[in-house]
Amino acid sequence: MSSASTSKKYLAEFVGTFVLVFMGCGSAVLAGKYTGFIGIAFAFGLSVLVYAIGGISGCHINPAISISMLVSGKMGAKDAAVYVVMQCLGAVVASAVLYAVALGKPEYSLAVNGLGQNGYGVASPGGFSMLSGFVAEVVLTFIFLLVIYGSTSEAVPKGFAVVPIGLSLVMIHLVGISITGTSVNPARSLGPAVSWRPCFEPALAVLGCPNYRRASRRGPMVIPRNQVENKAISANGKTDNPPQ
Q: Under a CB-based contact definition with an 8 Å cutoff, are residues 167 and 47 in contact?
């Protein structure tokens, strides 16, 4: 295989994982309050339409798939390693772009709204424990891989794999979002998790992101003293100003 076609495979995995994370996590961060869990689940499921890159790289866009292909002897060690690296990079870059977009909303807070990262305990949408999250992720990932291997088998009609894979991802998210936010994809978990503000602020400042610069210049909100006094009057029905 030529170096050009090899590079295309790796680039396709980067782009495919970028689309999956940006669209899936973006549906949670930017539109979650409008679409709810069902909308987020379908966003992740529909993101596999990036299966259009299947003819280039096989459209793994998930380290779990690449590693399972390596273990089953369907993929070489070098390709598997580079696939995983490119998938993780695509997820991190997607999270960075998502963060830049989210900054355009004045009330957005990374600490409060996050970037669609997974979690357990207080970080679990449903308050589930670490053990519950671990068991759920193992079972859901197994189901996902089972569907992928079954739908891409030589014994099934070609060209339809994206349908069962996409629908299974919707089903998995409908169950898993309340538990961990649903991962079943190490790269999807890694991207939002490493996309912390201290990492991105310097880069966004250097790139001159206008939304970031506006947010930075605003600084903490200071309420004028006369407004505070007026609020005290309206609340108490009388003036109760502190001594000058």
A: no
- Cβ atoms within 10 A of the Cβ of 206, count? 8
Range of the domain at 109: 3-236
Among 147, 149, 153, 139, residue whose Cα is nearest residue 167: 147
106-114 contacts at long range (C-beta below 8 A, 24 or more positions apart): 106/215, 110/196, 110/197, 113/29, 114/29, 114/192
- Is 66 inside a domain boundary? yes
Residue 110: the pLDDT is 85
Q: What is the pLDDT of residues 85-109, one digit of tens each?
A: 999 999 999 999 999 999 999 999 8
For range 9-37, the mean pLDDT: 93
Q: Is 75 part of a structural domain of the chain?
A: yes
What single string gives the DSSP state of each residue in 109-159? -HHHH-SS---SGGGSTT---HHHHHHHHHHHHHHHHHHHHHHTSTTS-TT
Tokens standing for 147?
Answer: 């569907």
In a domain, 214, yes or no: yes
pTM exceeds 0.85 for this model: no
Q: Residue 132 domain-assigned?
A: yes
Q: CATH number, domain at 200?
A: 1.20.1080.10
Total number of domains in the chain: 1
Q: Which of 90, 94, 93, 26 is nearest to 57 (CA)?
A: 90
